[in-house]
Amino acid sequence: MKKGLSQSLNLASARLSSPLSSPTSSRGILQTSSANKTGLSLRLDSTLKDGHDMKTFGLGTAATLSSRHRYAKFTSSMLHAYEALENSLDECASEPVSHVWKEFKDDLRRSEKLKEDFYDVKDALDCFEPSVATKGYVNSMVLAGKRDDEDGGGRLIGHLYCRYFADLMGGQVLAYPTRLALGLKGGTPRHYDFGKFGEERKVNVERLYRAFNEAGEMMGPEKIEDVVEETYLAFEENVKVYKEDGRLWQDSAIGGFNVVKGLLHAQTK
User: Fold this and answer.
1) C-alpha 200: how far from chain center
2) I need a surface site. Which of 25, 29, 63, 77 has the fewest CB within 10 A?
């Protein structure tokens, strides 16, 4: 029963694990890309296999839909994380990092949209202070940026990959069920919407892969290993945020029920 529940609630991960139906699907993009078969992109994608906890991601995502309070707390955590990441990327002078961020920052930046999404539900949260797990996640990004500035490394690319690729490859499908489950107004949540960049996802993901490879060519083998290690760390810190409140199975079941209830309500309007 738990296995079936996990599969039904893993809204985003299903896009990566489902059979290839189209070159523009998430799995189709990963399979048909040419740039991700070599260089730093290949190494980054390898972290998805043994570093990205799909089960926790799926259950944690569904659990955030169990109540406005839990969703508000999670949105607050993501706002803190994205603000820290984007500030670190903006300030980082390391050539490999700035090479990637300079080209894509206007399309990838999420913090302003997350801030608007948080304001929609902030009444459900007692305070805006980051949680213990969120503080740890934020600190890992800030430290990565400082170390990149010191040695010209690309650790922040690992955090960029962890966050924005998750949004591009799976997160975009979450807007509608989130809106249904929590009764949010139309057009929200905003941070899942990448506009034209997301509409042309296949082309732009390939551009990102090429930029990763170009950044990798600016670094020696040791610094590339630092990026891969940091990517694993980013996934680990992200999982801690998802797990922090516990009750993943219980709240993910409630979240799934809320989606179904919201869908039925929408169909009767």
Assistant:
1) 18
2) 25
